[in-house]
Amino acid sequence: MNDVTEVEYKEKYIYRIVFDDGTSGDVDFSEYIGKGPETLYEKIKNVNRPLLMPQYNCSEN
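Structure (tokenized):
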């Protein structure tokens, strides 16, 4: 399994995800709203701006 090296907000519920092998793509999280654990996607349910995510460090220590 590859590691995520970059996450970039695009628009609404769409984020570009980049992996350590250079593979990348846009993920639309809107289909997950209301699915899974109640709090998992609660923060992006009504968002029209970038999700305020905890700082994400892609480098290994």
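The chain has a mean pLDDT of 75. The radius of gyration is 13 Å.
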